[in-house]
Amino acid sequence: MNVGVAHSEVNPNTRVMNSRGMWLTYALGVGMLHIVLLSIPFFSVPVAWTLTNVIHNLGMYVFLHAVKGTPFETPDQGKARLLTHWEQLDYGVQFTSSRKFFTISPIILYFLASFYTKYDPTHFIFNTASLLTVLIPKLPQLHGVRIFGINKY
Q1: pLDDT, tens digit, for every residue of 63-77?
Q2: What are phi and psi for residue 68, nearest 5 degrees?
Q3: Which residues of 22-35 are buried (b: 16+ CB within 10 A; e: fewer)?
Q4: Does the pTM of the predicted model rise above 0.90?
Q5: How far apart are CA 126 and CA 121, in angstroms?
Q6: Is 19 helix (H, G, I), strand (E, B) or coil?
Q7: How many CB atoms are closer than 10 A to CB 12?
Q8: Residue 3 contacts by C-beta under 8 Å, 6 or more apart in sequence?
């Protein structure tokens, strides 16, 4: 055991979304969530699509935009502990392939959910609200911004 020896990455949290097979695993996870929700007998197809969209967006918001820091010991002198995972992704460089993928995937899921719910107003409101909660924090203008001081520390 090498105590006190850091890995070669400044912050391994920044590269995990670019690792091999991550996008496929992500898509399969969303697909499995949808299949599990469809297998529940008292959920209709529109309810299953709306729940898939809302649960996906809630999970994406929590893991990418609410949780700060990194589970790894980093030699960056604590810079990563004040940033969310989205802000750490690709070392903060905007419009990389992984950032585009994680921006487009909730939009595609939103379109699928809207189509399969036949644009029902109730489902449409829930799907749109959940989409906006994950798209607005991804804007480059909000990089490092804490609205009303929420999640500042």
Answers
A1: 998 888 887 777 777
A2: -115, 160
A3: ebeebeeebeebbe
A4: no
A5: 9
A6: coil
A7: 16
A8: none
pLDDT at 6: 53
Mean pLDDT confidence for 70-91: 79
* 8 A C-beta contact, residue 67 and residue 85: yes
Neighbours of 52 (CB within 10 A): 23
Sign of CA dihedral 110, 113, 117, 123: negative
H and E: helices and strands count for the chain: 5, 0
Summarised one tens digit per residue, pLDDT across range 107-125 is 999 999 999 999 999 999 9
3-class secondary-structure state, position 122: helix
**H-type alpha helices, 2-148:** 22-38, 45-60, 85-88, 97-116, 121-135
Q: CA separation (Å) from 32 to 42, 92, 109, 135?
A: 18, 30, 14, 23
